[in-house]
RNA sequence: GGCCCCGUCGUCUAGCGGUCUAGGACGUCACCUUCUCAAGGUGAAGAUCGCGGGUUCGAAACCCGCCGGGGUCACCA
């Protein structure tokens, strides 16, 4: 294949995904990770996972593990991370506090940042006043011009302080975004942002800049919601005298009502989709499709490996896509159909095992599937084979296959009768069973011919007889082709069910 | 409200000044296949290219204004 990569980048790309451990793994994190992973590996570079745990209030204990697990599940394993290590560690921001402190103090020493002693109460009141006057809420720079003596005195007395960066007046700050070009900001509307909190933790703004620089990130990609704070980051790079990585702001994923994808209005947890039975190939494909279409094959169905053959940031669409579950479902069905039965079975087992332990709403279903597989793997596989191409999401399996596993079917009289008289149906069912039992060669052809002949003999519509049989054997309106279903069930069980139906009609 | 981003069928998009009476995919509907449901195949409906001005022989594409949607304005990320 022709190499269409920018040769200057080969072996040099370093990307990172930097989630905050604040709960369930977010689909947005998977989305970001996928793009970073693909781009880095396309260029034989490095994909890094950094944990941004600088907000102690929102910190959730297990959620870091869950991030690892999520990336592992999707096969988006980082080359450097808190777990696998790397030369640029630590990869957890809470373990890099001294570094941030050092750089924050350096800025203070250079007059590019300053200590601020304002209480949160004062800040709150200030903002309220500003809003009452219809002015944009911004820090009033109250502490910007304190004398060195006063700062030293208050610090020495142990007074709580934060460090804020100084934003220059009347300056045009240009943010270079790979997708949008130059985005210009007026420094007068940029706030003197806190970069180091009073608890010694950095805010996001300091931490990303310091870490991305120290970790030698070449392409800093993040959600579009960061675009408006990008000028602060540009300024910080300038203050430190560091070269900026390339910036890419990806469009925000949306709910059907176009608002930012949120827990309230949709499902943002990767685990939700996993539990529903979306498979990773489909999920990855879908996430990519949100912003990218394979430019060479023009295909909508592709793997992340295929994506690596041609993906470039510039090809990304910039409009906020709506997270369209219907399309995801279609994709999932496509991917399921593409799989071999054996591979599907592996996915189903993984799903059932995982959901039966950590599932939130499909636990019972998962256990049921597990028990079916355990009881008779061969039987399960045969039944599954007939449903393979009908399957959209894995969690549908219990419902789709349950009729194979019921001892006593609950019949629907209407379905069984197909608008005929009960005694006629009972009689013809008996006769069909009779003839089928006597069949010497049991094949699709002989089986079908027998049924059709029988229908003719009783002046029944073929269709009616088939439906009536279907109802007798499965108690369903829709199933895979009858002959195949009977084959899975076995003649004995199938005929027993016909008898059951006849008895049902006779009572 | 200030600032920033975005704006082609319901949804995702192709389109980078003439090939567009705007192409594809999902969804919807119809038909074919058929023992039902799927899958598959064929086809249909669905977009005054957000609106209004320019520029141009010619604009979905370029410029300006407006409108609409979204994001952001924290010691959250």
From TrEMBL:
<dbReference type="InterPro" id="IPR000924">
    <property type="entry name" value="Glu/Gln-tRNA-synth"/>
</dbReference>
<comment type="function">
    <text>Catalyzes the attachment of glutamate to tRNA(Glu) in a two-step reaction: glutamate is first activated by ATP to form Glu-AMP and then transferred to the acceptor end of tRNA(Glu).</text>
</comment>
<dbReference type="GO" id="GO:0005524">
    <property type="term" value="F:ATP binding"/>
</dbReference>
<dbReference type="InterPro" id="IPR008925">
    <property type="entry name" value="aa_tRNA-synth_I_cd-bd_sf"/>
</dbReference>
<comment type="similarity">
    <text>Belongs to the class-I aminoacyl-tRNA synthetase family. Glutamate--tRNA ligase type 1 subfamily.</text>
</comment>
<dbReference type="GO" id="GO:0000049">
    <property type="term" value="F:tRNA binding"/>
</dbReference>
<keyword id="KW-0067">ATP-binding</keyword>
<dbReference type="InterPro" id="IPR020751">
    <property type="entry name" value="aa-tRNA-synth_I_codon-bd_sub2"/>
</dbReference>
<feature type="domain" description="Glutamyl/glutaminyl-tRNA synthetase class Ib catalytic">
    <location>
        <begin position="12"/>
        <end position="330"/>
    </location>
</feature>
<dbReference type="Pfam" id="PF19269">
    <property type="entry name" value="Anticodon_2"/>
</dbReference>
<protein>
    <recommendedName>
        <fullName>Glutamate--tRNA ligase</fullName>
        <ecNumber>6.1.1.17</ecNumber>
    </recommendedName>
</protein>
<feature type="short sequence motif" description="'KMSKS' region">
    <location>
        <begin position="260"/>
        <end position="264"/>
    </location>
</feature>
<dbReference type="InterPro" id="IPR049940">
    <property type="entry name" value="GluQ/Sye"/>
</dbReference>
<keyword id="KW-0547">Nucleotide-binding</keyword>
<keyword id="KW-0436">Ligase</keyword>
<dbReference type="InterPro" id="IPR001412">
    <property type="entry name" value="aa-tRNA-synth_I_CS"/>
</dbReference>
<feature type="domain" description="Aminoacyl-tRNA synthetase class I anticodon-binding">
    <location>
        <begin position="366"/>
        <end position="502"/>
    </location>
</feature>
<keyword id="KW-0963">Cytoplasm</keyword>
<comment type="subunit">
    <text>Monomer.</text>
</comment>
<dbReference type="InterPro" id="IPR045462">
    <property type="entry name" value="aa-tRNA-synth_I_cd-bd"/>
</dbReference>
<dbReference type="GO" id="GO:0004818">
    <property type="term" value="F:glutamate-tRNA ligase activity"/>
</dbReference>
<dbReference type="InterPro" id="IPR033910">
    <property type="entry name" value="GluRS_core"/>
</dbReference>
<dbReference type="GO" id="GO:0008270">
    <property type="term" value="F:zinc ion binding"/>
</dbReference>
<keyword id="KW-0648">Protein biosynthesis</keyword>
<dbReference type="InterPro" id="IPR004527">
    <property type="entry name" value="Glu-tRNA-ligase_bac/mito"/>
</dbReference>
<feature type="binding site">
    <location>
        <position position="263"/>
    </location>
    <ligand>
        <name>ATP</name>
    </ligand>
</feature>
<dbReference type="GO" id="GO:0006424">
    <property type="term" value="P:glutamyl-tRNA aminoacylation"/>
</dbReference>
<feature type="short sequence motif" description="'HIGH' region">
    <location>
        <begin position="19"/>
        <end position="29"/>
    </location>
</feature>
<keyword id="KW-0030">Aminoacyl-tRNA synthetase</keyword>
<dbReference type="GO" id="GO:0005829">
    <property type="term" value="C:cytosol"/>
</dbReference>
<dbReference type="Pfam" id="PF00749">
    <property type="entry name" value="tRNA-synt_1c"/>
</dbReference>
<dbReference type="InterPro" id="IPR020058">
    <property type="entry name" value="Glu/Gln-tRNA-synth_Ib_cat-dom"/>
</dbReference>
<dbReference type="InterPro" id="IPR014729">
    <property type="entry name" value="Rossmann-like_a/b/a_fold"/>
</dbReference>
């Amino acid at each position: 294949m022709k190499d269409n990569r920018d040769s200057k980048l080969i072996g040099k790309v370093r990307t990172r995904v930097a989630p905050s451990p604040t709960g369930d793994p977010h689909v947005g994190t998977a989305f970001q990770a996928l793009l970073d992973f693909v781009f880095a590996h396309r260029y034989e570079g490095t994909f890094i996972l950094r944990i941004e745990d600088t907000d102690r209030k929102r910190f959730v204990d297990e959620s870091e593990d869950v991030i690892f697990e999520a990336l592992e599940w999707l096969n988006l394993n980082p080359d450097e991370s808190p777990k696998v290590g790397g030369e640029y560690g630590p990869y957890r921001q809470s373990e890099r506090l001294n570094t941030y402190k050092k750089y924050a103090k350096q800025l203070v020493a250079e007059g590019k940042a300053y200590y601020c002693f304002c209480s949160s109460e004062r800040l709150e009141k200030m903002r309220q006043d500003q809003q009452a006057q219809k002015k944009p809420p911004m820090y009033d720079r109250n502490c910007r011009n304190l004398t060195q003596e006063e700062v030293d005195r208050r610090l020495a007395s142990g007074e709580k302080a934060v460090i804020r960066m100084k934003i220059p007046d009347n300056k045009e700050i240009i943010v270079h975004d790979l997708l949008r070009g130059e985005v210009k900001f007026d420094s007068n509307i940029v706030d003197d942002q806190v970069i180091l909190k009073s608890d010694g933790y950095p805010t996001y703004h300091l931490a990303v800049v310091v870490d991305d620089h120290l970790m030698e990130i070449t392409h800093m990609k993040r959600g579009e919601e960061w675009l408006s704070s990008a000028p602060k980051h540009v300024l910080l790079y300038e203050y430190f005298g560091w070269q900026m990585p390339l910036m890419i702001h990806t469009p925000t994923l949306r709910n059907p009502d176009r608002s930012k994808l949120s827990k309230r209005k949709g499902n943002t947890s990767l685990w939700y989709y996993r539990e529903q039975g979306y498979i990773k190939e489909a999920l990855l494909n879908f996430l990519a499709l949100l912003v990218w279409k394979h430019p060479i094959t023009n295909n909508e169905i592709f793997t992340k490996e295929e994506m690596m053959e041609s993906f470039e940031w510039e090809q990304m669409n910039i409009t906020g896509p709506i997270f369209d579950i219907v399309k995801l479902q279609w994709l999932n069905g496509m991917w399921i159909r593409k799989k071999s039965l054996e591979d599907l079975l592996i996915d189903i087992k993984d799903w059932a095992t995982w959901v039966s332990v950590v599932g939130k709403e499909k636990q019972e279903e998962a256990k049921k599937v597990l028990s079916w597989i355990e009881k008779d793997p061969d039987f399960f596989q045969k039944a599954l084979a007939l449903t393979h191409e009908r399957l959209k999401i894995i969690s549908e399996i219990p419902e789709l296959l349950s009729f194979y596993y019921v001892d006593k079917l609950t019949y629907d009289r209407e379905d069984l009768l197909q608008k005929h008289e009960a005694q006629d149906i009972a009689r013809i069912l008996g006769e069909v069973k009779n003839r089928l039992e006597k069949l010497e060669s049991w094949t699709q052809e002989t089986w079908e011919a027998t049924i059709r002949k029988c229908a003719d003999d009783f002046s029944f519509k073929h269709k009616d007889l088939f439906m009536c049989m279907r109802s007798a054997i499965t108690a369903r309106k829709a199933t895979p082709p009858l002959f195949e279903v009977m084959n899975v069930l076995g003649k004995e069980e199938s005929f027993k069910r016909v008898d059951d139906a006849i008895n049902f009609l006779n009572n």
